[in-house]
What we know:
The complex is a heterodimer.
Chain A: H1 7-12, H2 14-32, H3 38-56, E1 64-66, E2 71-73, H4 75-102, H5 106-125, H6 129-147, H7 154-185, H8 190-197, H9 204-220, H10 229-236, H11 239-264, H12 269-291, H13 297-318, H14 321-348, H15 364-367, H16 369-383, H17 389-403, H18 407-433, H19 446-464, H20 467-478
Antiparallel strand pairs in A: 1-2
Helix pairs in contact in A: 2-3, 2-5, 3-4, 3-5, 4-5, 4-11, 4-14, 4-19, 4-20, 5-6, 5-11, 6-7, 6-11, 7-9, 7-10, 8-11, 9-12, 10-11, 10-13, 11-13, 11-14, 12-13, 12-18, 13-14, 13-17, 13-18, 14-16, 14-17, 14-19, 14-20, 16-18, 17-18, 17-19
Chain B: H1 6-25, H2 28-55, E1 63-78, E2 81-93, H3 95-118, H4 124-146, H5 150-168, H6 175-206, H7 211-219, H8 230-245, H9 254-257, H10 263-272, H11 277-284, H12 286-290, H13 293-314, H14 320-340, H15 344-371, H16 389-403, H17 409-424, H18 426-451, H19 463-469, H20 475-483, H21 496-511, H22 526-535, H23 552-555, H24 562-589, H25 591-600, H26 602-609, H27 614-681, H28 686-689, H29 693-714
Antiparallel strand pairs in B: 1-2
Amino acid sequence: xxxxxxxxxxxxxxxxxxxxxxxxxxxxxxxxxxxxxxxxxxxxxxxxxxxxxxxxxxxxxxxxxxxxxxxxxxxxxxxxxxxxxxxxxxxxxxxxxxxxxxxxxxxxxxxxxxxxxxxxxxxxxxxxxxxxxxxxxxxxxxxxxxxxxxxxxxxxxxxxxxxxxxxxxxxxxxxxxxxxxxxxxxxxxxxxxxxxxxxxxxxxxxxxxxxxxxxxxxxxxxxxxxxxxxxxxxxxxxxxxxxxxxxxxxxxxxxxxxxxxxxxxxxxxxxxxxxxxxxxxxxxxxxxxxxxxxxxxxxxxxxxxxxxxxxxxxxxxxxxxxxxxxxxxxxxxxxxxxxxxxxxxxxxxxxxxxxxxxxxxxxxxxxxxxxxxxxxxxxxxxxxxxxxxxxxxxxxxxxxxxxxxxxxxxxxxxxxxxxxxxxxxxxxxxxxxxxxxxxxxxxxxxxxxxxxxxxxxxxxxxxxxxxxxxxxxxxxxxxxxxxxxxxxxxxx
Amino acid sequence: xxxxxxxxxxxxxxxxxxxxxxxxxxxxxxxxxxxxxxxxxxxxxxxxxxxxxxxxxxxxxxxxxxxxxxxxxxxxxxxxxxxxxxxxxxxxxxxxxxxxxxxxxxxxxxxxxxxxxxxxxxxxxxxxxxxxxxxxxxxxxxxxxxxxxxxxxxxxxxxxxxxxxxxxxxxxxxxxxxxxxxxxxxxxxxxxxxxxxxxxxxxxxxxxxxxxxxxxxxxxxxxxxxxxxxxxxxxxxxxxxxxxxxxxxxxxxxxxxxxxxxxxxxxxxxxxxxxxxxxxxxxxxxxxxxxxxxxxxxxxxxxxxxxxxxxxxxxxxxxxxxxxxxxxxxxxxxxxxxxxxxxxxxxxxxxxxxxxxxxxxxxxxxxxxxxxxxxxxxxxxxxxxxxxxxxxxxxxxxxxxxxxxxxxxxxxxxxxxxxxxxxxxxxxxxxxxxxxxxxxxxxxxxxxxxxxxxxxxxxxxxxxxxxxxxxxxxxxxxxxxxxxxxxxxxxxxxxxxxxxxxxxxxxxxxxxxxxxxxxxxxxxxxxxxxxxxxxxxxxxxxxxxxxxxxxxxxxxxxxxxxxxxxxxxxxxxxxxxxxxxxxxxxxxxxxxxxxxxxxxxxxxxxxxxxxxxxxxxxxxxxxxxxxxxxxxxxxxxxxxxxxxxxxxxxxxxxxxxxxxxxxxxxxxxxxxxxxxxxxxxxxxxxxxxxxxxxxxxxxxxxxxxxxxxxxxxxx
Lengths: 492, 715
């Protein structure tokens, strides 16, 4: 055992270890089973994810630094890991029938999903620029491959290449910023960074570094103007991967963002708050306006997910305990509503129908009322209509902004929500009011039904009874080091 | 009684089951079983809870059950600094809500049973849909009365509004039904606007919306006798909400139209339960209202005027259900009159007796309509007591009850209201007595036109002919005849579930008043003493000097002698008998006199017959105003917004054209300059290489560049 390590370090990354072992197990099972037994792989993957979740549970109220201060095992990491595992779980559930229809190999697919999840988990735990970066790369590489997983499909290939090239480019920017930070402070540890750099007026170089890091992360969360890749990649990637990308990758990047800025650079809040303010406004406005005219539902959801990144950024701008809490709640709710919407889109994919055009939803209510009603609920939730989860999430985000004195930001957010309703409700119009299109009947496999159920239950329960989630998020947010706790509400 | 939250939940589960599975898969019998069982369980549980409540000493009769936290503490500004807006799924059982759950679940159950037979003509899908709505309605109504804070109450409040819309428009293929549904919904929205603002103001003022805490804080505040303070404003807003839900001036117009729904709906929603929600809410906020005497006076005046106006309209209506609808509005006016004079107990008492006899009358009218093959016009009825004796006798009981003839239920409760009004304000009392006379008149007119005299309806085919024609249907034909759907064989008594319900309600209409026999008649007025703790703040709190006046009206009871009270009682009995005699004379003995009177007072007749032209007034002011406003907005939309959109799309086009130029000449130019030699050989990659990806990267770089420049040059 290398110096400085102890058995405890392995205990603290037990969930990650279980996940790695499980990922390898999936590869082995893939080799040992025949093509006919392919559905088995999906359930093995589910088992791995559930086992990881189980081993994660004991860490809900732990707060330690592990692995020589490279990893923070705290409530914040716990919450985000839960988000990632749930996302992966629903994604895997909705994948099996899709793989079947597309005739794709399942083994590597599930393996890569697990790898991406692993990367995300390190991103949430990492409290050192290097750890975070390695987690980010683990996730990103898995996603590059997954995006191009539809090998015969040109769009998918194009998306993968674009994603890879632009991803490399943005990582360059991010790394440049990180290296400047290291150069200025002599450390990559975020908490040390905070103490070393926090003296005196910030230098020009430090500001440049912050801008570069924000830009690099902006790419990952698809914030305008670093979003250009998102619509193409979301449209080209296999639909379940699009879902995973738009939820999991985004959540992980927000975890990284919060770690870096709230743990490492809280003293520079005056510099990065306005930046995020601008990003939030531009991102949600652009995302919503662009989504208005889309006729492809995957592309529409891509722009909508850009807009949502804008909303979520409000929580960062607020820069308060309540803001972080609201952000985390929103991400959790976003998991359910976004994945639910994607699950319905995946379900539309049949042998003879691609199912990602808006018109493919025509008359869905008359063919599959349950799916249509679920989709209606997800759309209303994404739009933020009251009894749904989306409303609760937005309510907290906007109230956090108001509490920190960003009233205009909240106003712009509300206006944006109103705009977004147009294209969400348009989906409903298609499902209820348009003529049926033909095509083979829509069937939901058991796994797909389960995915829809999980998403729906989550979106419904947290909409009417958000108490427990709120408490979990609130206590998790407390463990984030740099959060300014107890921000005065007098500014309200 | 930790499980009172189950009471609203059970019908909710019933609604979920019939709604999710019933519409597709259940037979009518299965639907009826699920719906009635869930209601029966709720009713049993209500009785159990009520018995448990009775077992407690009188001053401790209150339970609070918090099922779960709902809205976690959100800091919001209040009058006293930043308060925590925290709401629980809290339920409260006290004498008032205890009485309400008995009414709602008990009468609800009876109406469910009645509907199993009444709605038999629907398809099994429609049947399940109906019971789903009906169950859901009961669920929300029970939530409304059991909620321990304004927000839970509001959930129920809005829920019953929704169900009412669904049920009024149940026959959605009928234009008039959907219109009536929309009308009810919109008019209720106006009231809800007031209610919501009232809740906001309650929170802003007291920092909480829990009934108990609000009432305790309010009790400690001074009575706003001189001016119009914040409590008065709260009460005014809450009362606006109540006028919407309980159909008071000026928002009563939706209720008569709501008769487009199936008759059991009219009985349940528009007589016994939902419309009483406003009265219940005012009673629940009794402490607030007693601190706002000006609003109290307003409530009393509105109540009295509504009672008088609706009763006068009821005098000349010919549709049997509309007569009952206006009578409901009028009786609700009585209840508000009672709350307005501070007699909350009397209001709640009348609410209870009214629930019995009005449900009875509505269901009786349903039985008549059923027997007459969906005919509702009383001019085409008459002499029906021969054909449907049970309906006749039970409706007679209901009529005697509402007219205030002792010893039927309505006598005791109405007389209590009249007496309390007499003590408080003589002018209002005169109006109330006048209304009582009218009530008696239009109810006996209804009885006379429907059950007495000669049969005036259409002729029918004899049963034998009907069967000949439908012989090949075999059993179906027999069943049809029972239900009154299919070939009509003339007026007939309704099937057992319907008559059974009528009889049960008739017993209620006879005995329900006995719980409130006033002291003047040797009783103890048990119900008002039972309910009293719900209207005053409980003694163990520090209530200050204000609590003494909380029941000013009831306190006045002892100031007047029993002799006086007895005299008033006898007077009101005579008034009722006068109404009866007049109806008897005009519609049975000397029908020609009615025509003569009509000619003599043609103006008044027209005015009443057309319901004071209030609907027309709303049509020409509010509706037309809104419509033209809407058209104006539409024009604004067309010209300005669309113009702006078109303009922006034009801008987009121009800018994209510009960026296209930029793309072609600058970006591509640069790319081509560098990559021209490569592009020939890598034709297959060209799509990606010279496509948008540089643009993407360029955009990102511009973003970085802009931010860095902003910080370095500007900031």
